[in-house]
C-alpha cells in the first residue's frame, strides 16, 4: 500500500533529457591495461573503418600510441578480436608495452583520442586517466 504523506505539497518536477550521443559508449572509447590489452568500443572500431587488424605505433617524443588500420596479412598487424557482447574489439599489445618500456600501472582510458589525416587513431598517454573500479560491497 502506498501512503501519500504530502497531499498539500506542490512538486516542481523537471524532466531529465535523454540524449544517446552523450553516452560514454556513443563516443570514442579506448582503454589500455597493464598487460597492454587495448580495448576499443564498437563505435570507435567502426569509425576507424572496422578493420580486421591494427598496426601498433609509438611516438616517444609525444608519448603517444597510434593505431593504424590494417589487414591480417600485413606485416606487424595485430588482430582486432571481439571483446564483449556489444561489438567492442581487443588488441593484444603486450609487445608494445615491453618493446617501448611503457609504464602503465593501471587500466587507463583515453578521453581525447583523435584520428589524424593519415587515418591513425592517436592515444596520448599524457591525457590518459585511470579507470575507477567499484569495490565489491562487503556483506553485513
Q: Overview of this structure, please?
A:
- With 140 residues, this protein is mainly beta.
- 9% of the residues lie in helices and 31% in strands.
- Strands 6-7-2-1-8-11 form a six-stranded antiparallel beta sheet. Strands 5-3-4-10-9 form a five-stranded antiparallel beta sheet, with no helix packed on it.
Question: Layout of helices and strands, plus pairs?
Answer:
Layout: E1 30-32, E2 37-40, H1 42-47, E3 53-59, E4 64-70, E5 77-79, E6 81-83, E7 88-92, H2 94-99, E8 108-110, E9 114-115, E10 121-124, E11 128-130
Antiparallel strand pairs: 1-2, 1-8, 2-7, 3-4, 3-5, 4-10, 6-7, 8-11, 9-10
Short description:
This protein has 140 residues and is mostly beta strands.
Search tags:
about 140 residues; mainly beta; 6-stranded antiparallel β-sheet; 2 helices
Task: Determine the fraction of residues in helical runs and give it as a percent range.
Answer: under 10%
* Distance between the amino and carboxyl termini: 28 Å
What are the low-pLDDT stretches, counting only 5+ consecutive residues below 50? none
Rg (C-alpha, Å): 21 Å
Number of strands: 11
Question: How many DSSP H or I helices?
Answer: 2
Order of strands in the sheet with most strands: 6-7-2-1-8-11
Mean pLDDT: 86
The succession of helices and strands, N to C, reads EEHEEEEEHEEEE
Outline, from the CA principal axes? elongated
Structural class, please?
A: mainly beta
Amino acid at each position: 500500500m502506498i501512503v501519500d504523506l504530502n497531499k498539500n505539497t506542490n512538486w516542481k518536477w523537471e524532466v531529465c533529457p535523454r540524449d544517446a550521443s552523450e553516452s560514454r559508449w556513443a563516443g570514442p572509447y579506448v582503454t589500455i591495461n597493464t598487460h597492454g590489452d587495448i580495448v576499443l568500443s564498437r563505435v570507435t572500431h567502426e569509425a576507424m573503418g572496422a578493420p580486421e587488424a591494427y598496426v601498433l605505433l609509438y611516438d616517444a617524443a609525444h608519448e603517444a600510441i597510434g593505431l593504424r588500420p590494417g589487414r591480417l596479412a600485413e606485416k606487424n598487424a595485430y588482430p582486432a578480436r571481439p571483446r564483449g557482447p556489444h561489438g567492442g574489439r581487443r588488441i593484444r599489445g603486450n609487445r608494445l608495452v615491453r618493446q617501448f618500456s611503457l609504464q602503465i600501472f593501471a587500466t587507463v582510458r583515453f578521453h581525447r583520442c583523435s584520428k589524424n589525416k593519415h587515418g591513425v587513431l592517436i592515444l596520448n598517454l599524457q591525457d590518459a586517466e585511470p579507470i575507477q573500479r567499484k569495490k565489491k560491497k562487503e556483506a553485513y
